[in-house]
Design a protein that fits this description.
The complex is a heterodimer of chains A (about 400) and B (about 270).
Chain A lengths: L15 E2 L2 E5 L5 H15 L2 H15 L5 E3 L1 H7 L3 E6 L9 H14 L4 E6 L3 H12 L4 E6 H6 L1 H9 L3 E5 L6 H14 L4 E3 L10 H9 L1 H14 L5 E6 L3 H7 L9 E7 L12 H4 L1 E5 L1 E6 L24 H9 L3 E5 L1 H15 L5 H13 L8 E6 L7 H8 L4
Parallel strand pairs in A: 4-14, 5-6, 5-8, 6-7, 9-10, 9-14, 10-13
Antiparallel strand pairs in A: 1-2, 2-12, 3-4, 11-12
Chain B lengths: L4 H12 L3 E7 L5 H10 L7 E5 L10 H12 L4 H14 L5 E5 L1 H7 L1 H11 L3 E4 L11 H7 L2 E2 L2 E2 L8 H6 L5 E4 L12 H12 L6 E4 L5 H10 L2 E4 L1 H9 L3 H20 L5
Parallel strand pairs in B: 1-2, 1-9, 2-3, 3-4, 4-5, 6-7, 7-8, 8-9
Helix pairs in contact in B: 2-4, 2-12, 3-11, 4-6, 10-12, 11-12
Classes of the chains: A alpha/beta (about 400), B alpha/beta (about 270).
């Protein structure tokens, strides 16, 4: 990582992005994680693997996803030209399936017979249940009780596809606890089980592996924007919980120094309150769930519960590569509150006829802060990481509407 | 590194011809005072080595019993500083029983590794078991601990194959903790015959004492493990006694009563 002529070389051979990353897991899991690393490295050199994944992404997921010029949002702000990368149009309605498809092919390659995953908003759970159904593997999805309550449509979707949704009642009953429980399942069923982690976090090689499967987003954007505008964008914008949609968009552009890259964390009720999920701006480095990264924690190193209106961002950590990109200053990390996200959600519905996920709405919320003051030839690409049908109950509730 | 209380204890037990009874309790569970009373009473109830849990909000390798114990301890205001105070107080009355702190890395990382080892050593700790620090992360705490004269005890599991075992053994000292089943703490009981087979394999690679834990709940099970291992570890069953007690007096009494029974089971097996 000492050569700074590229930001894309990480992680190093020990799985670190600078200080961040690593393999902080129980010994029971280590042999498996090493086995996964080997399988992943060999899959990268396997043209058959690449061909199979590409075929599935095209014919099953529906890639490539459009890069859509959002004319009315652009007019509304009266400044920069806004493009939306339509990951919401993927099968299952979010970017999550890009990674799940890659990981289930790895699971099959490794001869695993059972799939587990954690989920917050349910998008990763749905995507995992989908690929498990497609390849005929039994699947258990761990989901916090609080999230089960606020994401009912996704819970039912998972069940329809044959997944077992396991309610997690420990801790804050959200994503972090679901991840603890999934890790406990994995430790117990080590031999036959493959853990499909949904974001660019966890022990090495997961952060790199999930990133590589999500890079398809940014690679397509490069091609598409060259076609549409004949040049690269000026600004990239994406929301960040663990950070997989953001990493997928950002990573292919990290070495293009003229591209300004902005990640938006969830500020909940405000970053100056104790009710937010902005681990970069409100946390400090620590070790959780297999990696070192920025974490919301108290003075004693106990993890603090995150808060966000969006279940998918409600996590006290962030992927280790984001932590590194923050520290080296390549990516600018900002945040948006629940209220700002709600406002952007409604604006996108009304102006573009697109119901964005509440997670995505945090990225959209940042447009208001930058787009109006930018020149008309300034190009912003926002990752529209997921659709918001799953969020209508939460939104109705926040707006005081009874459904 | 120089000899620790753990080394001395295993040497004495070998002489005596029996296995070690290793107990686990959570610091500050249900409160600091009660847990101090329990820890003070454990040597008298037959414990040869005491593992003291450092509570953590996200104990991802623990089953429900130890998860609950950790939450009770945190609710009672337990911090790493207070845990070390607890050990210091215990040491005032007992300079022989080895104390091993067990838990997860983040609270130590937040406290500062160097400061933790210095304060821990001064308080009288002898060893560390840190669940989420495999040998890949030895530079974090394992190597500094060895330097400071604190044993770093590693877990080996049914998934630790021949290829992996040397990495696990490399910087382990004091004893090796064999996790008898792939799972979380307090899960199903191990099959002694399977455990014996695994121990044979590990013994071919090391002379270090091996303690066996996970799933041991009764004096009979403890005795069966004492037959084949150098130590038997009991945690969840003791911690459940604390959790089920209706008063702090009962927590102390009932936990120590179980410890005495388990100890009798282990002491019924002689290896001379």
């Amino acid at each position: 990582m000492s050569q700074l002529n590229t930001y894309r070389a990480g992680p190093d051979e020990t799985g670190h992005f600078g200080l961040f990353g690593g393999q902080f897991v129980a010994e029971t899991l280590m042999p498996l994680i090493l086995e996964l690393d080997e399988a992943y490295e060999s899959s990268k050199k396997d043209p058959e693997f690449a061909k199979q994944l590409k075929g599935l992404l095209k014919h099953y997921v529906g890639r490539e996803s459009p890069l859509y010029f959002a004319e009315r949002l652009t007019d509304h702000f009266g400044g920069a030209k806004i493009y939306l990368k339509r990951e919401d149009l993927n099968h299952t309605g979010a970017h999550k399936i890009n990674n799940c498809m890659g990981q289930i092919l790895l699971a099959l390659k490794m001869g695993k017979k059972r799939i587990i995953a954690e989920t917050g908003a349910g998008q990763h759970g749905v995507a995992t249940a989908t690929v498990a159904a497609r390849f005929g593997l039994p699947c258990a999805i761990y989901m916090g009780e609080t999230d089960i309550e606020r994401q009912k449509p996704n819970v039912f979707r998972m069940k329809l596809m044959g997944a077992e949704v396991v309610p997690v009642t420990s801790g804050s009953r959200t994503l972090k606890d679901a991840m603890n429980e999934a890790l406990r399942d994995w430790v117990t069923n080590v031999k036959d089980t493959f853990y499909i982690i949904g974001t660019v976090a966890g022990p090495h090689p997961y952060p790199a592996l999930v990133r590589d499967f999500q890079n398809v987003i940014g690679e397509e954007v490069r091609r598409q924007i060259m076609e549409a505008e004949g040049r690269l964008p000026d600004t990239l914008l994406a929301c960040i919980g663990g950070g997989s949609n953001a990493m997928g968009l950002f990573h292919p552009f990290l070495d293009d120094e003229n591209v300004d890259i902005v990640g938006v964390e969830a500020a909940g009720h405000g970053i100056d309150t104790d009710q937010h999920a902005a681990s970069l701006k409100g946390g400090r480095p620590g070790v959780l769930h297999g990696n070192r990264t920025y974490l919301l924690q108290d003075d004693d190193g106990q993890i603090i519960e995150a808060h966000s209106i969006s279940a998918g961002l409600d996590y006290p950590g962030i992927g280790p590569e984001h932590a590194w990109l923050n520290d080296v200053g390549r990516v600018n990390y900002v945040n948006a509150t629940d209220d700002e996200a709600m406002e952007a959600f409604q604006l996108c519905c009304k102006l573009e006829g697109i119901i964005p996920a509440l997670e995505t709405s945090h990225a959209l919320a940042h447009l208001k802060k930058i787009a109006p003051d930018l020149p008309k030839d300034h190009i912003i690409v926002v990752n529209l990481s997921g659709r918001g049908d799953k969020d209508i109950f939460t939104v109705a509730d926040a707006l005081g509407v009874e459904l | 590194m120089s000899e620790t209380r753990i080394d001395r204890r295993f040497a004495a037990l070998k002489e005596e011809g029996r296995a070690a009874f290793v107990t686990f309790v959570m610091a500050g569970d249900p409160d600091l005072e009660t847990s101090l009373d329990i820890i003070k009473g454990l040597p008298g109830a037959g414990a040869d080595i005491i593992e003291v849990g450092m509570p953590f909000t996200d104990p991802m390798a623990d089953g429900p019993a130890i998860q609950q114990a950790g939450l009770r301890a945190l609710a009672a205001g337990t911090t790493l500083t207070r845990t070390l105070d607890l050990i210091r107080t215990f040491r005032e009355g007992d300079n022989d029983t080895p104390i091993v702190l067990m838990g997860y890395y983040n609270p130590i990382y937040a406290y500062g590794v160097e400061r933790f080892l210095k304060d821990g050593k001064a308080a009288g700790i002898d060893g560390l078991i840190i669940v989420d620090l495999p040998s890949e992360e030895d530079e974090e705490l394992c190597l500094p601990a060895l330097e400071a004269g604190v044993n770093f005890i590693r877990l080996t599991t049914p998934t630790t194959d021949e290829k992996r075992l040397p990495a696990v053994l490399k910087n382990t000292s004091g004893f090796l903790y064999y996790v008898s089943i792939a799972g979380t703490t307090g899960a199903a009981a191990p099959e002694p015959a399977d455990v014996a087979k695994s121990l044979e394999r590990i013994r071919a690679a090391t002379d270090m004492p091996i303690a066996v834990g996970f799933g041991i709940r009764t004096p009979e099970q403890a005795a069966a493990i004492a037959e084949i291992a150098d130590g038997a570890v009991v945690g969840s069953a003791l911690v459940e006694r604390v959790g089920n007690a209706s008063s702090r007096q009962e927590a102390v009494r009932s936990t120590l009563a179980l410890a005495s029974d388990l100890s009798a089971g282990i002491r019924s097996v002689t290896k001379k």
